């Protein structure tokens, strides 16, 4: 049976890497992003079963993304919420509007997507919900001042545990993947700044930032049959950052 996955933020960065990993693992994958066409066309040219689900999750109802995916693919077995934004400001400079914007996309949208996806997974008797969190849940943000982002990602831990307990009888596993520092376009403002890049890298025992593909391999495992006895967990992939 072909399984269907939906990946938000799937056109670039960690989300794009997870799309490719799930394709290698035999999923048909819907890519949800504001402009998914280029990424989808590149993958389709390689013969992969991937399709576009254009959306702006900051404005569009998240439930609609799930409904369109199911209508196009005939079902849904895995949901990965990798879409995100960040506002790098200390708390005293952060506006309430900025605070709400970050929390909405990371936390509110995660709940609404999962809530919409769960019935299809329950009907199939098998499901995977994977939220992309952050090592900042456990480090408080480190040298980068990102209180809204840190709070939103920490909220995902509570949501993960609550849904994992509630949905285990339905055959749905819910987990949180917490990457450490990953070199992507999303984090360019940090790794291009020597005052931030140096201290962060010095704290990573492996001595380098991760590549998106390294995080995606963990995500692929969490969406697979191999992770059938793993739910309600925060899986940290940080190169040893928290062990420093």
TrEMBL record:
<dbReference type="InterPro" id="IPR002347">
    <property type="entry name" value="SDR_fam"/>
</dbReference>
<dbReference type="InterPro" id="IPR036291">
    <property type="entry name" value="NAD(P)-bd_dom_sf"/>
</dbReference>
<comment type="similarity">
    <text>Belongs to the short-chain dehydrogenases/reductases (SDR) family.</text>
</comment>
<dbReference type="GO" id="GO:0047001">
    <property type="term" value="F:2-dehydro-3-deoxy-D-gluconate 5-dehydrogenase activity"/>
</dbReference>
<protein>
    <submittedName>
        <fullName>2-dehydro-3-deoxy-D-gluconate 5-dehydrogenase</fullName>
        <ecNumber>1.1.1.127</ecNumber>
    </submittedName>
</protein>
<keyword id="KW-0560">Oxidoreductase</keyword>
<dbReference type="Pfam" id="PF13561">
    <property type="entry name" value="adh_short_C2"/>
</dbReference>
């Amino acid at each position: 049976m072909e399984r269907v996955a939906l990946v938000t933020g799937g056109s670039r960065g960690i989300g794009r890497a997870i799309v490719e990993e799930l394709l290698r693992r035999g999923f048909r994958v819907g890519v949800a992003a504001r402009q998914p066409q280029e990424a989808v066309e590149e993958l389709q040219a390689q013969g992969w079963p991937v399709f576009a689900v254009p959306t702006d999750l900051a404005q569009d109802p998240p439930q609609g993304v799930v409904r369109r995916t199911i209508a196009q693919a005939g079902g849904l077995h895995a949901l990965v919420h990798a879409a995100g934004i960040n506002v790098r400001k200390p708390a005293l400079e952060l506006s309430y509007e900025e605070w709400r914007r970050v929390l909405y996309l990371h936390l509110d949208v995660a709940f609404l997507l999962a809530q919409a996806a769960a019935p299809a997974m329950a009907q199939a008797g098998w499901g995977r919900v994977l939220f992309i969190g952050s090592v900042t849940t456990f480090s408080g943000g480190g040298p980068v001042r990102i209180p809204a982002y840190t709070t939103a990602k920490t909220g995902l831990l509570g949501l993960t545990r609550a849904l994992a307990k509630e949905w285990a009888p339905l055959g749905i596993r819910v987990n949180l993947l917490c990457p450490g520092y990953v070199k992507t376009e999303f984090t360019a403002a940090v790794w291009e700044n020597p005052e931030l890049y140096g201290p962060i890298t010095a704290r990573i025992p492996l001595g380098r930032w991760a590549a998106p593909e390294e995080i995606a391999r963990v995500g692929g495992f969490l969406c697979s049959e191999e992770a059938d006895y793993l739910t309600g967990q925060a899986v940290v992939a940080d190169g040893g950052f928290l062990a420093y």
